[in-house]
Amino acid sequence: MSETWLSQEAYDRLNAELETLRTEGRERISAEIEVARAHGDLRENAEYHAAKDEQGKMEARIRQLNELLRDARIGEPDTTDVARPGLVVVLDIEGDEETYLIGSREDSHSDLEILSAESPMGRAVLDQSVGATVSFTTPSGVELAVTVRDIRTV
Q1: Residue 60 and residue 93: Cα distance in Å, rounded?
Q2: CA 39, CA 45: separation in Å to the nearest integer?
Q3: What's the CA gap between 52 and 22, in Å, rounded?
Q4: pLDDT in tens, 87-115
Q5: What fold, for 88-152?
Q6: DSSP collapsed to 3 states, 12-75
Q7: CA pair distance 40, 35, nearest whole angstrom
Q8: Which of 59, 91, 95, 130 is the most buried (most CB within 10 A)?
Q9: Looking at residue 8, what is its pLDDT?
Q10: Residue 61 and residue 79: Cα distance in Å, rounded?
Q11: What percent of the chain has a predicted confidence (pLDDT) above 70?
Q12: Taking a C-beta distance cutoff of 8 angstroms, is the pair 101, 151 a contact?
C-alpha cells in the first residue's frame, strides 16, 4: 500500500475507531455469537451466521485501519510545488475546472472531492507542477487530458 496523508483530525478519528473495534466491538460480537450459539443447531442458525459475518467484516476493518494508520503520514506535505497526497489540486479537465484533495477517502472533507493517488487520474497528476498537462486512460478506455491549474494545502 502506498503512503497516505491524513490530517491530524482524520488520524485521531480513525485511531479512535480502531480502538473501539478492538475493544467494545470484539466484546459485543463475541457476546452475540455466544447468544446465537446457545440457540441450538448451528447449521440452520441464521442469527449465528449473521453474527459470524459481522465479525468477519469487523476484523477486515481492523486490519484495514491497522495498515492505513501504520503507513500514514500525518499533517500537511512539505511542499506545494508538485501534486502530492495531502494537497488540493485544481484541474482543468477538458474545459471543466474541478478541485480535488489527493488522498484517501478516510480523510474526506465536506467541501472537497477525493482523488485517489492510485486512480488513473491520480497517478497521472502525481508529481506534476502547475501548468503541466498530462493524459490518462479512464477505466472505460477513454483518453482524457488534464492540466494542473493550482496546487495548495487544505
Answers
A1: 36
A2: 8
A3: 16
A4: 899 999 989 999 998 887 777 666 888 89
A5: Chitinase A; domain 3 (3.10.50)
A6: HHHHHHHHHHHHHHHHHHHHHHHHHHCCCCHHHCHHHHHHHHHHHHHHHHHHHHHHHHHHEEEC
A7: 10
A8: 91
A9: 81
A10: 32
A11: 94
A12: no
pLDDT band at 3 (very low <50, low <70, confident <90, very high): low
Compute the distance between CA of residue 73 and CA of residue 64 in angstroms, rounded to an integer: 16
Topology given in CATH for the domain delimited by 4-74:
Helix Hairpins (1.10.287)
Which residues, at least 6 apart from 117, have a Cβ–Cβ distance to it below 8 Å?
2, 85, 102, 103, 123, 126
Domain ranges of the chain: 4-74, 88-152
127 dihedral zone (left: phi>0; alpha: psi -120 to 50; beta): left
Query: What is the rounded CA–CA span in Å between residue 149 and residue 40?
Result: 64
Tens digit of pLDDT for each residue in 135-149? 999 999 999 999 999
- Grid coordinates representing 43 are 447449521
